[in-house]
Task: inverse folding
């Protein structure tokens, strides 16, 4: 049997994630079944399960692409030279989030993932880790602002056990 290329495998994985995202947005994460994902993707159960062991893996993969892209965008702005003023940073991040929040925008899934994180430990861990990563990027940016004299040093919050506990 001929081996398939990495490019083909990645295209198929993306096809499944796109189908799942469409179902999650249309029906909600909780109400979407694996059968819905199979139908939307046009793939068999075996084909989907070759790439993802469970619906939770699909949820994490879909959320990862959105959060990773957003985090990468924020990190690029936060480390940009010259240092962006706070008002410009907030404006750019706000525009990016709005662009991802349309009727079929992936940011619409965030509240659903947060709700699932309350009772699903795997998704809870994933959400906490990613939110803390974005928080860390913002904290580093705030530190740069303070170092440049653009933000009072007292404005830099120290992580507390309350805000950061699991």
Result:
């Amino acid at each position: 049997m001929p081996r398939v290329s990495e490019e083909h495998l990645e295209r198929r994985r993306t096809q499944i994630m796109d189908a799942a995202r469409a179902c999650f947005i249309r029906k909600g994460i909780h109400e979407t079944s694996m059968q819905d994902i199979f139908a939307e993707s046009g793939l068999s159960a075996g084909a989907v399960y070759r790439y993802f062991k469970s619906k939770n893996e699909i949820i994490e993969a879909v959320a990862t692409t959105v959060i990773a892209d957003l985090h990468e965008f924020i990190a690029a702005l936060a480390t940009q030279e010259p240092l962006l003023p706070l008002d410009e940073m907030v404006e750019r991040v706000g525009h990016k989030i709005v662009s991802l929040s349309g009727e079929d925008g992936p940011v619409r899934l965030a509240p659903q993932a947060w709700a699932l994180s309350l009772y699903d430990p795997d998704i809870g861990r994933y959400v906490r880790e990613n939110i803390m990563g974005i928080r860390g990027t913002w904290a580093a940016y705030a530190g740069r602002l303070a170092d440049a004299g653009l933000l009072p040093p007292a404005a830099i919050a120290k992580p507390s056990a309350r805000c950061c506990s699991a």
Residues 161-166 have pLDDT under 50 and may be disordered. The radius of gyration is 19 Å. Residues 56 and 94 are 29 Å apart (CA to CA).
